[in-house]
Every structure is written in C-alpha cells, then in structure tokens.
Amino acid sequence: MSSPDTLELPASGGDGLSFNMPDQKLVCDAKFDGKPYPCTGPTLPPNTNVVFKKAGANSFSAAITIGGRLSYQSTYTGSADGKMLTETGSAIGTTEKYKAVYDRQ
Predict the structure, then answer these.
(1) What is the pLDDT of residue 10?
(2) What is the pLDDT of residues 23-44, one digit of tens each?
(3) Minimal CA–CA distance to 33: which of 60, 57, 67, 66?
C-alpha cells in the first residue's frame, strides 16, 4: 500500500472496541465475546460483520465475514511500549499473508 491509513481503536463499553478507519469511513463496533457485529462503510459489501476475541494481554483477533462466509482473519498486537500496533493476517482461501504496522499518534 502506498499511502498510510489511519486506524482508531477507542474502547466501546466495558468489553468492546470500536474499529474505525476514517479515511474509508469504515466502522465496526464490537465486543470481545466471539459474537458477530455489523460493520458499516460506503465501500463494504452488504452483511459484513466482525468477530473480536482477545488473543493475549496486548492482542486481539478479528474475523471478517461477508454474507455469512469467513473472508479475512487478522491478529492485532500492541508493542510493549504501546507505541506500535502490528496487524498480521490473510484472506481466506489464499496462501498470501499481509502485515501492517501502525504508529501511535
């Protein structure tokens, strides 16, 4: 990707997270309970959902479904100093992996 995206991850409720990408107008507001929650945004296909699960003290997983089918899986891990967030994952049905590193602003 040639231009950086902004990723905002404010807490939502007692056990949730709002996953926001303002440049794409994408919002997923979900809890870490393993249940699907809808995502909204002008470029998203209908019936796009996310499932968040805690994956460790400083990480969580996100599974994206489109039309009820698993499409992407990612893990987000915060650095020990809290200054970076690393996303690793893949599209389902491919062997191609992706990695994105976000610097805290």
Answers:
(1) 92
(2) 989 999 999 999 999 999 999 9
(3) 60
Q: What is the pLDDT of residue 3?
A: 55
Quote the tokens at residue 70.
């698993």
In a domain, residue 47? The reply is: yes
| Six token digits for residue 30 | 């979900």
Rg for the chain, CA atoms, rounded: 13
Under 8 Å between Cβ of 102 and 82: no
- Structural domains in the chain (count): 1
C-alpha to C-alpha distance for 83 and 71, rounded to whole angstroms: 29
Measured in degrees and rounded to the nearest 5, phi and psi for residue 23 equal -60, -30
> Which residue range is the domain that position 39 belongs to?
16-103
Ranges of residues in the chain whose predicted pLDDT is under 70: 1-4
